[in-house]
Design goal:
Length: 296
């Protein structure tokens, strides 16, 4: 109830500055990755706002009254679903009657293999050049249904974007496929890369299953140390929105290399390493290839 009181207060003061020069729809996304995808597809036809900011933890985010204010007036809302944004349905209730699209619609889910989220869908389905087309099609549909006048532009931008992603990934896929079978392992902190691993034919293991779970308990660390020794896995990676310490500990104790940070749940600021979705996929995939192909 407190939230509604705050909201009433904010509404009064958000009747604000000048209208943009162009007739734009307002697109609201749950996190930065979808904001960038939506901007690529919308071009000048939309103002796109991400609720969570660059570098934020997105599973268990707690929106502030300011985050609610930024979402007001949205014409369409884009979020992932599959249990990713545990906070988002409650957040949406504050925005009134706005159409929301679940961008993972149509993805073939990979189920989480262990931990307290066992049997649920792994939510990180955007992290896959193969699934990118599904996300792009869903964004094109959401924007076109919201703003039918510009549907042709959204469709054309979506197709160009798909082609760019496909061209970026052909060489990376080839580099992974050139590795011997027993070297094709992807070990990370969070099991956020199941879809990428599936795309690239990598076996996957992680210290913990999902960031909403406990992270880096002694049992989790012990289990991964044993698995890495058993399979002689040469490298372990961490993820940008979590502490690298558990992965670094595993590297120290196994003598494996610490392969650095993979990006999945958030973009960086424009001057950082992954300001766009394409960068996120590319930098992450290249980091994996470099780690797996490094000479010991
Ligand atoms: Zn995650």
């Amino acid at each position: 109830m407190r939230i509604f009181a705050v909201l009433g207060f904010l509404t009064v003061f958000s009747l604000g500055p000048a209208m943009p020069a162009l007739a734009q729809i307002k697109v609201l996304t749950s996190f930065t990755v979808f904001a960038d995808m939506a901007r690529n597809i919308a071009g000048d036809h939309a103002e796109v706002v991400s609720i969570t900011r660059e570098g934020a933890e997105i599973h268990m985010f707690r929106p502030t009254p300011g985050d609610i204010k930024r979402g007001l007036g949205a014409d369409v809302v884009l979020w992932n679903g599959l249990g990713l944004e545990t906070w988002f349905e409650r957040y949406l209730e504050n925005l009134g009657d706005v159409k929301a699209y679940i961008l993972s619609d149509g993805v073939e889910p990979i189920l989480i293999a262990e931990g307290s989220y066992q049997g649920r869908a792994n939510p990180h389905a955007w992290m896959s050049p193969g699934n990118a087309n599904i996300y792009i099609d869903n964004i094109v549909r959401a924007l076109s249904e919201t703003d039918p006048e510009n549907a042709a532009a959204y469709a054309a931008n979506g197709e160009a974007y798909k082609a760019e992603i496909a061209a970026t990934f052909a060489p990376i896929r080839a580099a992974i496929e050139a590795l011997p079978e027993e070297k094709r392992w992807l070990v990370t902190s969070e099991a956020a890369f199941s879809y990428l691993a599936r795309d690239f034919g990598l076996k996957e293991a992680s210290i913990w299953a999902i960031n909403a779970d406990s992270q880096g308990s002694p049992q989790q660390v012990r289990r991964i140390i044993d698995l890495m020794r058993e399979n002689r896995i040469p490298v372990i990676f961490s993820e940008s929105t979590v502490s690298p310490k558990p992965a670094e500990q595993v590297a120290r104790e196994t003598g494996a290399a610490y392969g650095g940070v993979l990006y999945v749940d958030s973009l960086s600021t424009p001057d950082g390493p992954v300001p766009t979705y394409l960068d996120l996929l590319k930098v992450t995939s290249e980091t994996i290839v470099n780690g797996l192909t490094a000479k010991p």
